[in-house]
């Protein structure tokens, strides 16, 4: 099967992000298509089938939230060995769902996606919880009786004190109730793309990865406006001086009304980019 071109992939991603109920697994797999030339439509189907297969191994309606969390921990953390470690933060593949399904290793948020998608297919009351610095999953009513589990640690149950420790270790601030709010599919995808951008930012030779992560983020219905500025600067850095300069000028117009000094700084950057052609 021939590989989809950039336009077709991006259109598929943008359309999937605008569905009434966005398919989280599909969006994560479409992110993987940007990174992995070997992933095609057949590979995406195979990854979805693998999630279905794993869900089929869960017991039927095991009980309450604690029982669901325990069943997922036994299946995914125990039997199939899904978990993470420090080395996983150094791999781009740890942010790509199809590779996480194959390696059984990944970042907390990707392992949580596996848990959520497997549990959802089995009928579990599951949701994602984007704690600062560490993504986990919840089972039950997020505003009432619920339990938390950490897929990165094989599904270890998290008490309120455990969650507070995770937050304090990551940010130095106490846990607040708002941090336990369920994360929507598009919020999760944006956070995954932010992780990829951070990975690439630490590797100056991987501006290609950083650029496509920014461009996918811009296709989401809601995204930080500053990403337009980041994309423009990346284009200049990669030698696309005219396109980058034009986008810098366009962004300067956007911010001029509220931050005139910042807008003028951006215009100077655009002029410098154009001068690179002389």
TrEMBL record:
InterPro entries (alphabetical): SirB1_N (IPR032698)
Domain of life: Bacteria
Domain Protein SirB1 N-terminal: 48-194
PANTHER family named in the record: F-BOX ONLY PROTEIN 21 (PTHR31350:SF21), SI:DKEY-261L7.2 (PTHR31350)
Family the entry assigns: Belongs to the UPF0162 family.
Name of the molecule in the record: Transglutaminase family protein
Species of origin: Streptomyces endocoffeicus
Lineage, uppermost ranks: Bacteria, Bacillati, Actinomycetota, Actinomycetes, Kitasatosporales
């Amino acid at each position: 099967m021939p590989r989809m071109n950039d336009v077709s992939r991006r259109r598929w991603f943008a359309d999937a992000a605008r569905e009434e109920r966005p398919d989280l697994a599909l969006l994560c797999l479409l992110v993987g298509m940007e990174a992995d030339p070997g992933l095609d439509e057949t590979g995406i189907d195979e990854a979805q089938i693998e999630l279905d297969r794993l869900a089929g191994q869960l017991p039927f309606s095991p009980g309450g939230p604690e029982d669901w969390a325990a069943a997922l921990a036994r299946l995914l953390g125990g039997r199939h060995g899904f978990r993470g470690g420090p080395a996983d933060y150094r791999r781009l593949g740890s942010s790509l769902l199809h590779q996480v399904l194959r390696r059984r290793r990944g970042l907390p948020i990707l392992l949580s996606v596996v848990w959520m998608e497997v549990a959802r297919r089995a009928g579990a009351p599951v949701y994602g919880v984007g704690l600062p610095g560490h993504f986990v999953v919840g089972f039950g009513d997020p505003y009432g009786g619920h339990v938390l589990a950490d897929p990165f640690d094989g599904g270890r149950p998290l008490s309120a004190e455990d969650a507070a420790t995770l937050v304090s270790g990551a940010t130095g601030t106490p846990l607040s109730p708002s941090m336990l709010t369920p994360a929507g599919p598009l919020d999760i995808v944006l956070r995954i793309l932010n992780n990829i951008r951070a990975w690439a930012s630490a590797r100056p030779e991987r501006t290609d990865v950083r650029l496509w992560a920014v461009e996918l983020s811009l296709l989401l219905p809601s995204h930080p406006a500053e990403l337009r500025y980041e994309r423009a600067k990346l284009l200049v850095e990669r030698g696309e001086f005219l396109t980058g300069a034009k986008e810098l000028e366009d962004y300067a117009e956007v911010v001029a009304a509220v931050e005139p000094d910042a807008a003028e700084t951006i215009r100077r950057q655009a002029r410098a980019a154009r001068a690179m052609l002389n």
